Each structure stands twice: as C-alpha cells, then as structure tokens.
C-alpha cells in the first residue's frame, strides 16, 4: 500500500518506521512546526529503542520518503494522521482543503488524541462515498514504542464501514499474524476506550500509592501486600507498583482529558479527580520524607537525584515527577546534583543554568558529599549500585527510593537509612534483628 503519515508525534514516527519496514511505501510529512531536520536531533527520537535506526534504514532503502510539505505528497490508499491535540485546526484544514479534494478512494486513520467524536467530524470534511475516516487510538508505550506497534496486545479500531475495516486489516496484517488482535467497535467507543485504559492504569497506581501511605503509618511493608494482591487472579500484578508519581506527555495529558470530559458532562468530584490529586501529592513524596528526616532543616543541604525522565527508556520529562520534586527542593534552598542517562539535555533546556542545580556526568559523581540520595526514575543502571563506594562518597547515609527497587534490609546492612514508598529500614533496626 501507499501510505501517507502526517505528524511529528512519537506515534507518527513509529508508524512511519514500522509500516515502511514491512513492504508498504510510506511518505512521511512531519508537522511544519517540527520538520525532520529538527526531529532527527531530538533526544526522544534518538533514545527511543530501535526507532531512529529503523527510520534511517527505511529512508536508505527507499521504502520511506520524507516530505517537506503537503504539495509533495502522492495519492495514497491510507492517510495516517498523528498530530498533537493543539494542531487539530491544522489537521482539519489539511483534511478539508487537500484530502477532501482527492478524487480517489482512501481511508483516513485518526491516530491523534482529539476530542471524542472528532473522527466523525473528519469524515464530514471528505466528499466521496469511499473516503472513510476510522479511529485507531495511539496505544504505544513510550520507551518501547516499536515493540508495542509491531507486537501489539491489541489494536482498538473504531470503524463502521466494512470496506475501510478490510483496508486497515491489510495495512496491519504483518503485525497481526499470531492471532486477530484487532478489537473492532464504533468510532466513539474506540476513542473513549483509549482514555478509559489510561484512567484504569492511573487508578491502579494511585490506589497502590494510597495503600503505601497507609502501610507507612501502620509499620507494614507494602511489598508484602503488593505481592499478595497480585497473586489474586481477579487483580493481577500489572501496574501495582507504588511510587513517587507518574507522568509523561501522553499518559498525564490523556488522564486530564478524561477528567475534563467528566466535568463537561456535569460529573464532578469523581474518582478520576481523586486519582489526579493523589498523583500530584505523590510527586512530592520524596521531598516530604527528606523534610521529615531532617526535621525541616533543609536549607543549604545537597542531595543527589537519580533519574529525571518520566520513565526508563525515554529522554522526555513532560509532566515528570522530578519537576515538582525539584521545585519543592529549591524552594527550601536545597542544592541538587542530578543524573539521568538520557534526559539531562531536556532538563538543561527546561531550567537553563539554575544556581541550585548541577548536572552530573555519572551516577557516582552525583553522590559526592550529599546529604541524601533520591531515586526518581528506575533506570536499569541504578538497580545495583556499589553500596560500599556510595557509603564513602555520601556525607549522610540516607536513601530515599521513589520506586521501591531496592531491598531495604540489604541496603540497611551497608549502614544506610532506607525509606521507600511504604517501605523502610534503619541500620540499627537491621542489626538488632540479625542479632536475634
């Protein structure tokens, strides 16, 4: 098939890369606000596993052609629209003024995060009987976008036209061979499903964070509770990990959108509003633990922060928990030595030369003469540090684990005070227990 992909979102770049590697002839037109010359140098394109490599390979092979404007686009069987929500007016104009004047049959795939019902609006801008708009919500997981596109758990396809459904089935056939993973439904149902999935995942995380707070007050290890809950087949283990808040440009944005839809429909003070509030509170959880440990005497102290990206495997910091944490620390005059394997350029661009921020080249150097180590993003390189060396580098042996990736007892054996999310261990307590 000839496929035109329009947009500069991760979903657009991933679609261009994946579709061009299985035999489709793809023409990618990034949004003019972010042309390929800009995208090619961005950290999120470079750091997304396999994405830049596949884009480069497809460009070199000729299966992917980069287009600088809509004028250079050919006629296509499928037009894949994946722009940001604030570019909706541009998308509408392109569909009406360009695609709406095409004389041939095609399917328009709405892969953008637009308001519920907008796929139907796009179709009204087209003119022929077989110019059909379908909804195919972006369900990619950032940090493994290529994997989730090429080996999906499911596709959520909103289509009420048999011909268009068959076209999309052929488009995605290479990624749908093991079993039929396409969940077919009306367009509005597909658009709502995307938001419903985000809401459910966020609710599970926030619920575990609430339980972790309760476990802290009851002196219960939340890890024991989590494992027992996850073993119940009615619940399962996914997204049951408490932590210092979630973020990300897509996850957080869609959660707020779902919450705003409820408000617009006159449904106020519901569960989703509570989920948002819990997450905002949890993004300052490590700050509160630091405050408690030092009895509020934080001015002039220095801490190490490991991790800035909103999740491992990405360089993006949009809505990341580290942003709220840094603001809270700096408000108390705390100097921060920050390390992240991929997101330091984004932090530098966001904050500039902040007087209370030092960007550390290595995780170890960030810990020199600090009063605490705060783990925010669970990059794999942070999972097994040299505890003996850390004990000599740090001025005070305090570990605040925002992702519960460490064994509290093991860390305490090396002389550290450990505080996780619903977990804790003091070196004195561990020594007493060992003596028993």
Automatic annotation (TrEMBL):
Domain UDP-glucose/GDP-mannose dehydrogenase C-terminal: start-end pairs: 304-408
Pfam families: UDPG_MGDP_dh, UDPG_MGDP_dh_C
Keywords: NAD, Oxidoreductase
EC number: 1.1.1.22
Reaction equations catalysed: UDP-alpha-D-glucose + 2 NAD(+) + H2O = UDP-alpha-D-glucuronate + 2 NADH + 3 H(+)
SMART domains to which the protein is assigned, alphabetical: UDPG_MGDP_dh_C
InterPro entries, sorted: 6-PGluconate_DH-like_C_sf, NAD(P)-bd_dom_sf, UDP-Glc/GDP-Man, UDP-Glc/GDP-Man_DH_C, UDP-Glc/GDP-Man_DH_C_sf, UDP-Glc/GDP-Man_DH_dimer, UDPglc_DH_bac
Signal peptide: none
Entry similarity comment: Belongs to the UDP-glucose/GDP-mannose dehydrogenase family.
Record-given protein name: UDP-glucose 6-dehydrogenase
